Amino acid sequence: MSDEQPTELEPGGPNAVGKMLGLLGDEWTLLLIQQALLGVTRYGQFKAAMPISNAVLTARLNLLTREGLLERNVYQSNPLRAEYLTTPRSRSLWPFMLAIWDWERKWVPGHDLPRMVHTVCEREFAPVLSCASCGKPAAAREIAAEWGPSGNWARSVPEASTRRRWDSEQVSGAAGLFPDTMTILGNRWASALIGAAFRGITRFTDFEKALSAPPTLVADRLRAFVAIDVLAATQNDKRPDWAEYHLTEKGRAFFPVVATALQWSQRWFRSPEGPALLETHTTCGAEFDPQFRCDQCSTVVHRRDVRIV
Question: For the purposes of burial, counting CB atoms within 10 Å of the CB of 2, is it exposed (0-12), middle (13-18) or buried (19 or more)?
Fold first, then answer.
């Protein structure tokens, strides 16, 4: 499979969103991509950089190689030595990683995350999600989204068998460096639920119906989101017995992570029926193509212009 070309998905199967969540909704995968983007290439270097077992590291490197996010290059044959190099597919994930860094830095206490400097203006900066068409900042409420030809909730969640294995590995000792992000993305129902919340769903029964999820799982995910202050539970004015779940300021601030993940997914995974999601920036009326601008100088942020301090 060429890493320059998108992966063609099976008709009627998981769409680009489901495929993306199956890959990125795992902390070890995110950490490996982070290290690879920082220049780590060899097995021993990955092992030294994070508290990961040999079995999990081998499985993730094989997965990332199979999915075109890393390229395995044998540089010595006797004894066999290989390195894992980034590809266009993994390098294009840097906006997503930048969004996670910025959100965790601002909203999750107790982090010792590195500072980042925009070398164009030589200032420490925060990325501002903007529309590539008009250049203006783009908040979640300014994005109109509707399902595309391959889009529905059932096709937008990862395959259960894969996620059950990954969840069990995380329980037995994940690194814990992206704790709240993994609460949102690291569970197949949680990731779908946050998408439903951004689509305007607020009631328990509506979450249950939209996701076709067991009520116990919906209740569990809603409790988890309330616990990390991504959702707030309120009473309905007309029906006090109905609880409603609304995105908090912290929850709405997660939108750049969602936006960049969706952008990446629909660039690299294609269903024969067409896109999973269609998004419009209502401010300018153009198809929404997210990009980051520097909050200090307002210019577009490119990967080459970010320096870690």
Answer: exposed
State the pTM of this model: 0.89
CATH number of 7-308: 1.10.10.10
Tokens of 167: 């969840």
Helix (H, G, I), strand (E, B) or coil at 58: helix
pLDDT one-digit tens code per residue, 251-293: 999 999 999 999 999 999 999 999 999 999 999 999 999 999 9
Measured from the Cβ of residue 154, the count of other Cβ atoms closer than 10 Å reads 12
Axis crossing angle, helix 27-37 with helix 16-24, rounded to the nearest 10: 80
> How confident is the model over 38-76, as pLDDT tens digits?
899 999 999 998 889 999 999 999 999 999 999 999 987
Strand partners, 71: 85
Q: Which residue has the higher pLDDT, 240 or 130?
A: 130
**Hey, CA dihedral for 298, 301, 304, 309, is it positive or negative?**
positive
Domain ranges of the chain: 7-308
Contact call for residues 181 and 104 (beta carbons, < 8 A): yes
